[in-house]
Amino acid sequence: MSALSLRLPDSIHRHIKELASKEGVSINQFIASAVAEKVSAIATEDYLQARAERADKAAFQAVLAKVPKREPLAGDEF
C-alpha cells in the first residue's frame, strides 16, 4: 500500500468527514472507496467503448428484425 498526500479545500474536507462519519468509516476508507468507484467507472466506460467499436451493425439489425411486431405491454410504451 502506498501513501498519498492530498490537499483539499476545507469545505470538501468537512463534507468528506461528515459523510465518512455517517457511513461509519474512516476518512481514508471513504476517499479510497470513492477513488475506486471513479476508477471503475472510467474502466467500464473504456471497456464499453472498445466493445462498441467492434460492433457489427448489420448483425444487430438482423437480430432486431426477428423481434415480433406487436403493441408494447401497458406501461412499456413511450
From TrEMBL:
<dbReference type="InterPro" id="IPR013321">
    <property type="entry name" value="Arc_rbn_hlx_hlx"/>
</dbReference>
<dbReference type="Pfam" id="PF05534">
    <property type="entry name" value="HicB"/>
</dbReference>
<protein>
    <submittedName>
        <fullName>Toxin-antitoxin system HicB family antitoxin</fullName>
    </submittedName>
</protein>
<dbReference type="InterPro" id="IPR010985">
    <property type="entry name" value="Ribbon_hlx_hlx"/>
</dbReference>
<dbReference type="InterPro" id="IPR008651">
    <property type="entry name" value="Uncharacterised_HicB"/>
</dbReference>
